[in-house]
Design a protein that fits this description.
Elements (H helix, E strand, L loop, with lengths): L5 E6 L3 H10 L5 E7 L2 H9 L5 E5 L10 H11 L4 E6 L4 H9 L4 E4 L7 H9 L4 E2 L1 H7 L17 H11 L4 H8 L3 H15 L4 H11 L8
Parallel strand pairs: 1-2, 1-3, 3-4, 4-5, 5-6
Helix pairs in contact: 7-9, 8-9
Amino acid sequence: MLPYSVKIVIADDHPVILEGIKRSISTDSIDIIDTASNSTEVFQILDKGGVEVLVTDYSMPGGEHGDGLPFLSLLFRRYPDVKVVVMTMLDNRGLLRTLITAGVRCLVSKSDNASYLIPAVHAARSGSQYFSPSIQALMQTVDNLSPMNGKQVNLSAREFEVLRLYATGMSINDIAAQLHRSKQTISSQKNSAMRKIGVDNDAELFKYILEVGPNELPST
């Protein structure tokens, strides 16, 4: 009797990487039923049904549904029964926190061997959590990342506003003047937002905002 195989789709916008992943995870327990190179193709495949796990790159431009957090958020809403494994080269602690609180339970770093996708696929299929070694190591530097603890990364409207303006290059003094608040208040709101996101300095903050997008910051 043949072993049960998980029906998966692999999505990556680089053909060479896509082919490498297919070869690395081709086993009796994984059935690769299709591949995609952008979000448009992903949704077209998922609309047909029969997919149990989607293995997708985080950064995959070119599709009509975008990539990154907006793509994943729409994916979770439209296909709640499809499990997801996200591949990424990102090493930003704040973005990692946001991905996990957004519902991503299985993450594999592209700096790790592609073979780690095999246990990630099976963990995703069973509803478990899985992180490849590089992701796991990064997690050790971030507190309370587990989605099971119910902690969400939600910025207040004022914190969101301060970070949005800060991302444009405005200084604390400029933001304070524009919003008619004190410099101390603006600085406090910025620091509070950084603690929620999980970044320690301005370099990490700018990197986080650039990767997430200023309009996609998690806010209440």
